[in-house]
Amino acid sequence: MCTSKCPAQHRFCDSIKRGFDISRLKFLLPCPIFQNGAKYPGNSRLTHFVDLKTKFVNMKSRYNNLDNDPNGPWLLTEVTVAGNHGDRCFEWNGTRPPAGRSWRFTEAQAKALERQGKIVFSSTGMPRMKRYLKESSDTLHRLFEQLPQKKFKFEGELMASITPMLVSALGYAEDETFFDYGRRNHRADFVVSKSIESKPWIIFEIKNSRTRDISPWIEQLQGYLSAFDAKKGVVISPETLVVICRGFVKKFKLNSLTRAETLEILESLERSEEEALEAHEESVTNQLTSLIERAEAATTNDAKGKSLEALAQYLFTSISSLTCKYANLHTRSSEIDIILEYNSSKGSLPLFEELGRYCFVECKNWSQPVGAKHIRDFIGKLEKCRVKLGIVFAKNGVTGTNSGLDALREISSAYDRNGPIVLVFSLEDLRSISDGEKFSEALDIRYDRLRFDVDD
Questions:
Q1: What pLDDT digit, counting tens, does each position of 205-219 carry?
Q2: 271/306 same-domain check
Q3: Cα(31)–Cα(46) distance, rounded to whole angstroms?
Q4: Which of 22, 284, 443, 445 has the most CB atoms around it within 10 Å of its CB?
């Protein structure tokens, strides 16, 4: 067991299945809350009554059980963490972690989670992990209710005994846990954060003592929150847990902790939607950056073609209503790199609502701009198959960008005669796109420029 304030190798805790009856939460619990800056107990004590049934319903709305999972309601969490960890950069379901990130798990752990039904794959093959409401609350309650019966020689021993289970139950990863965090006069026992350089999501202080006056603990934690610009902080001792969340302070007595209070702690501290979105957006952006760099660095003709096609497929399938129905389809007269199919039931796209179900994609990872002949050939493929929309991914764009001639003239001519719509994206254009939503917006902008004859 780790006995100092240093990172230790911890395995994810096994959940203990212990149930509780939600229907019993039909009462009002007096919750003592203290305003930011006030000392406990002090004269500024407020009594805040919380309708626990409403609180549970609001919390449960973030979870779902669309697949009737026997473990109950769940939400999806990010499975990558910042940093390059060699043994956790393996290929998983045909996908590797984005540049600068690694999987949260080893390959063996990942396969075990798949067998347990805890992994969900997106349309692009990217895994996400289920985090169960019941499992998280049960784990926290077991952890906290046992603390008053235990004795620890020093704070490091207490911290090592609770950190792995606590962090996991709240939805964070071991690699997002940083010990002895801070600088100069402000050094927190540990924090959870995106990276060691990032602003902490939660600051934790461990106290291996039993005292009635916890005001010094609160003052210290509030100082850390201010110094690190964090919104959430926790003090944990064998008898008491103090939560500071967005300026309010709440004390919990661990020797009489109720299931309802555990649920309240979970709601206050679990990984927020903003934090999950921040990690997911960073993951998507890093993946796009990695694919663009791979397309630029390719040297052989085969690698050039495959890398740009992989980038195109990733972008299009990040839009929920688009799927890559065919790739490298050989017809009797030609070859089509990618054929997209639009499904409006998964989300409406005005461009596809106007132009139809199918779209052809041509990928040209060439050192020179694509010329008029190749654009004419592409337009011919669209006309033969009566497809109204075509998109060209060209590493260096098409000819005529500065003069309006050559390839660009062919594109304008096709539009003027009520022919197919052709939209062009260079690798430089794609650098400003961070996700599927941004790419969808970029498609609309490209079409508007062609329709209204507006320069880029």
A1: 999 998 889 999 999
A2: no
A3: 8
A4: 443
